[in-house]
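Could you please consider the sequence and fold following this short note?
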Amino acid sequence: MDALNAIFNRHSYRGKYLPSPVPREHLKIIMEAGLAAPSGCNKQTCSLIAVDDPEMMEKLHGVILPPAGETAPAMICVLTQRIIAYRDRCYAVQDYAAAIQNMLLTIVDLGYQSCWYEGHITDADRIGDQMAQLLGVPEGYELVCFLPVGKPAEEIKIRPKKPFEERAWFNGFGKNE
């Protein structure tokens, strides 16, 4: 699949997954794509943990409430470090967002589906902190997102996007002449 195909065929998948395992070499390719993303001032604030061990998956899903991605055979957890790039500016959010997008596109390219779960685990209940503890994440890192990875067991429901003309213009806001 080419890059544009992956971009236009990526959708958030919240359905059930088939139980077939994701080969570790595919998880490595997905993570390498994430780590190849641009990074503000090259601080490389994003780190990743792939989880494919069924026992660890069960432990992690024990703290993800309400359940999300619970039937996926693997997941990738996204970590960030708050590192100042310059002038008190930190680009950690941009760094991990770019890494996540690269991984989501690679997941689709390899024939899998996923969904970006961030708010679900970073709200006041701090599920990401509980996940980080289970994974032995050291202080100074924050687990901000997880991506379930697997083959979809259900039809992919595509939500419509607003028309191009409502969100993109040429030579000024609202101009499409």
Q: What stands out?
A: The mean pLDDT is 94.
